Amino acid sequence: MKQQCFAPVGLAAICLSFLVASFAWAVVEDEDDWLETDERILVTAAFRPAGLFDSAGSVSVITAETASQRQASHLESVLNLAPNVNFAAGASRGQFFQIRGVGERSQFVDPINPSVGLIIDGIDMTGLGGAATLVDLAQVEVLRGPQGTLMGANAMAGLINLVSAGPSSTVSGFGEARLGQRGLREVQAAVGGPVGDQAGFRLAYGSASSDGAQRNSFLGRDDTARIDEQTLRGRLSWQPNARFSLELVGLALDIDNGYDGFSLDNTRTTLSDEPGHDRQDTLAGAASLRWQAFSDLDLELSLSRLSADLEYGFDADWAFVGLCEVFVCLAPGYSAFDNYQRSQNNSTIDLRAVSARPADRPAWVLGVYYRDQSQFLRREFTFLPAPFERDFDTDNRAVYGQVDWPLAERWNLQTGLRYERRRARYSDSDGAAFRPSENMWGGRLALEHRSNSGQLFYGLVSRGYKAGGVNSNSAVPENLRQFDTETLLNVELGTKGRLLDDRLDLRAALFWQDRQSLQTQQALLLPQVGADCPCEFVQYTANATAGQSWGLESELNWRAAANVQVFGSLGLMRSRFDGFENFSHVDADPANGLPFDMDGRALPHAPETMFAIGGLWRLAAGWTLRAEYEGKDAFFFSSRHEVRAPSSRQLHARLAYQAGSWELAAWGRNLTNEEVQVRGFGAFGNDPRKGYIVEPYVQFAEPRTLGISARYDF
């Protein structure tokens, strides 16, 4: 099994070495900036922006150059580069994220408390993964492990921070167009520069559209899984003097994607007569103010506001009316449509005092935080007698602090603590009302050592937490309507540094995580009055006993020659449930009181191996070639059944020619046309032709896609 797992990695490494040797003759005289380097990358999500190699913690940074060379218009297209980071679809995009096997995989009627935080230009977009478009991207930062001090309740597993490009000192910008198979059409453009001597601006627009990869044979259409996304963002910075600065950010999203993801035949050909949709209209903004109150003390105030309207609907029977008149059925067919309209409003205030960071005395951060969120849901389902509506409002108040202690030469101790109080108010049209409140805490303790050669070694202990919540569906037993807070303890050992005369950047971390009162999704499959099908699939959240995960994360970037760059990442992970007995499992027997014992089984969406390896070569003047090979092991889709996504391998390549400010490229994603599965159901029957027997159903990622692009920078 392990030989099968690692054989492709070894083969890719051999091929890559051969290519490096083959192209080594084309050495250019000067080492230009065309090669990416980790040396100047700052991680901005931290309290103090720090170099990628200068602080404890397992962090991946995906640069704008990498995203552009992968033709990425959404976060889902670059996440495979970050080890032990996965995503789930069940919608038009992969918008549910998991870090080290921890994270949500879907959302229907229940309000969810995400495990992975999502910040876009200082705006808290947690739980809105479809909004993670990459227009005018500067970088994506992925912080693995609990961010209890930094963010609190919404970042128990980690944090994804998207940062767009900021204003420049001179007028500059770009325009880019991409064309590809299945009607792929993408356009991005940005312009920015100074406004007088004290201010600067940046304005960017992007549009992404395609027909999608599904074929609806009943309707005779190829666009029922279409992509139609528009993004507009702007930034304005003002610094009247050295002691004061202000930055304003605005974001507008208009997403009108189709959703026709599942087929009764488990293919890319569907039979639905009412294909679904996945829509989002969002307006958001943030303001960041910094004032140097004293020579050694800054005051920083961050404000953000988000208003989002979402609509997600799908043909619940995945078929057309009259299916059993065309096919032989073992049970009567049914027809149903399920639609969810959501509105969400977030407001955050974060005020902190940040001391200077001298080398000989402690540096500290002290802050207070407030977040107010309101969520409204209206569900319309064919078999509901009336629409279901619910309100779920929460407010979070927190105080936090962090101190960096210089212990001795080359040694540093970092301590952080956050205390948070959360109050929630839940009510729905069924008459249910809950008012849960809780106190939570998290933090970190990190010991850092810098060797004489500049290598950083660290040990880290961190604690994160995830708030409890409410299950909306009244069919869920009363004793399960609420679930408890989950906590995660993370222990990590790592190193970061440069080798081979600073031409090899290497980061590696070993981790062990322990989850208590683990929140996991369960399900009930209910028959409907007057229907012959088990056609309501009720999901709810419950607390398992515990879960563990442990493994390795490593990333490298090797500037092998002036014209050759090699990069790669590797994630190894084992995980398991501890003492978890599951009644909603497909093999459980609730009637006889015999649950399915999942003790020792791996966590969902937690592949044992993830890897990415690639190279960037300058072949001749103006010509570059990028090739990447990535993959992941098989993983369980859910804690409710044993269906697994098979292991997958993907090959991507891009050949580009640059002349002055112009770049033309031909590219291909998933060149071997691998059928990658990104969402799956197992404890579910939906086909009357088979008598609604329980069987697996899966949703596929993008197949092979070829295209061309043109970009102009000024």
Give a structural overview.
- This protein is mainly beta and 714 residues long.
- The protein has one domain: Beta Barrel (Maltoporin, Chain A).
- 4% of the residues lie in helices and 55% in strands.
- It is built from 3 helices and 44 strands.
- The strands form 10 sheets. The chain has a 22-stranded antiparallel β-barrel.
- Strand 21 (388-408) and strand 22 form a beta hairpin.
- The longest helix has 22 residues, at 2-23.
Brief write-up:
The chain has 714 residues and is mainly beta.
List the helices and strands and how they pair.
Elements: H1 2-23, E1 42-43, E2 50-51, E3 59-63, H2 64-69, E4 85-88, E5 96-99, E6 116-120, E7 123-124, E8 137-144, E9 158-164, E10 172-180, E11 184-195, E12 199-210, E13 215-216, E14 227-241, E15 244-259, E16 269-270, E17 276-294, E18 297-315, H3 323-326, E19 337-355, E20 363-381, E21 388-408, E22 411-428, E23 433-434, E24 437-450, E25 456-466, E26 469-470, E27 482-483, E28 486-499, E29 504-516, E30 519-526, E31 536-543, E32 546-561, E33 564-578, E34 581-582, E35 596-597, E36 609-620, E37 623-632, E38 635-636, E39 644-645, E40 648-659, E41 662-669, E42 677-681, E43 697-700, E44 705-713
Parallel strand pairs: 6-9, 13-16
Antiparallel strand pairs: 1-2, 3-8, 4-5, 6-7, 8-9, 10-11, 10-44, 11-12, 12-14, 14-15, 15-17, 17-18, 18-19, 19-20, 20-21, 21-22, 22-23, 22-24, 24-25, 25-28, 26-27, 28-29, 29-32, 30-31, 32-33, 33-36, 34-35, 36-37, 37-40, 38-39, 40-41, 41-44, 42-43
